[in-house]
Amino acid sequence: MKTRIGVLTAGRDCAGINSAIQWITYSALDKDLVPVRGMMFEVIGILDGWKGLIEVKPEKKESLKRWTVSLDSNLVRTWDRSGGTRLGTSVINPFDPKKDQAGLIIENMKKLGLEALVVIGGIDNLGAAYKLFREGVKVVGIPKTIDKDLSETDYTLGFDSAVNWITEDIDRIRVTAGSHSRVFVVETMGRKAGWLALEGGEASGAAVTLIPEHDFVMERVAELLVKRKKEGKRYSIVLVAEGAKPRGMHEVLERRGQDGFGRVYLGGIGGFIAENLEKHTNLEVRYVALRHLQRGGSPTAYDRRMGRKYGIAAVDMIANEDFGRMVSLKQGEITTVPMKKALDQLSLVDVEKFYNTMYYRSKDQIL
Count H helices, E strands: the chain? Predict the structure, then answer.
């Protein structure tokens, strides 16, 4: 008899997810591993994240077709080279206080015959997965977020691809920046974590990098850029994380309210900086927010490899009944960690180790 497992992607999309789904499927259906694991698997993809498990009517064929898909090796054969998520996703909180739907998810899982669930998500959705685990659902987690803010793992799917896109986009921007002798303020995602901006700044050679973990002084940013201009630098790139803020101020917010997990939408700090630089200096400044460009495109080789490693590990976790845990990369090795521990705190940039607070850039020297 086969053990039926479900797979869903929840929250925002990123590169590397499809590789994980592909290798969950390949590994689960690998007949050579049956003697080792002592079980056979069937893999069901849940469409559009938690929404699929909420909306599906298991007793109706049309609903099953709309919200689920049987995954096999032939279907997922080329998925690893695609960005985003082929299963679709949604930003829904199953434990939303206004409409708690966890009970319906558990009921529908039973009706679908799902004995275990693989959740590919970031801190919010792995948090929801952990709550379901506490209510008796057999869950394992795979970390994915371009923000790389999940603790207890050195890597989250999507980060490397996002840094690559930031680098490529800035390569394009520097062409027009150099042509017109301008300063370009480029805004990245990242929420409370500055990893995208910091490593994107390293890769692209940004003149100034501003991160949420250290409040910046606007006058100092202007001073650094004016100094570069006087030294004959034709242009400058200022890379700023969406959660960065000037000293004594709050984060800049978009006017879109909150998502299903009660989180505000950050965005616009780049425009604020550009406006202030033009107002208080003689520099010509432009502002570009990369936003969802960072999520798109094909995954890098690293994200494809990590999707493979995480996907295989997730199936092994189910076979070993290692539930309530998350796949993790630690010191170059694949392991598992308790979800609760991974969710207890965010993984943020250690300013003392990695950030030069005087020149607003990476601390690259060994001192």
Answer: 13, 15
96 as an active site residue: the answer is: no
Any residues with CB less than 8 A from the CB of 163 and at least 6 apart, and which? 196, 199, 200, 203
Identify the domain containing residue 133 by its residue range: 2-157+299-343
Question: Tell me, what's the pLDDT at 365?
Answer: 67
Tokens at 167, concatenated: 């680098």
Please report whether residue 353 resides in a domain. Answer: no
Extract the tokens encoding 344: 């207890």
Report yes or no on whether pTM surpasses 0.85.
yes
φ and ψ of 258, to 5 deg: -135, 160
Does residue 221 form part of some domain?
A: yes
Find tokens 């199953």 and name the residue. 94
Q: How far is 340 from 331, CA to CA, in rounded Å? A: 20
Listed in sequence order, the residues at least 6 apart from 282 whose beta carbon sits closer than 8 Å to its beta carbon are: none
CB of 184 closer than 8 Å to CB of 238: yes
CA separation, residue 367 to residues 2, 352, 353, 364 (Å): 57, 12, 10, 9
Q: What is the total count of domains within the chain?
A: 2
Q: What per-residue confidence (pLDDT) applies to 366?
A: 65
Whether residues 48 and 87 share a domain: the answer is yes
Q: What is the pLDDT of residue 1?
A: 76
Q: Which of 342, 328, 359 is nearest to 155 (CA)?
A: 328
Q: Is 81 exposed, middle or buried (0-12, 13-18, 19+ CB in 10 A)?
A: exposed
Would you state the pLDDT for residue 367? 57
User: Which one of 48, 80, 147, 316 is the catalytic residue?
Assistant: 147
Where do runs of H (alpha helix) occur along the chain?
Answer: 17-28, 34-37, 50-55, 61-67, 102-112, 123-134, 159-180, 195-204, 218-230, 269-280, 301-319, 339-343, 351-354
Residues of the chain where predicted confidence (pLDDT) is lower than 50: none
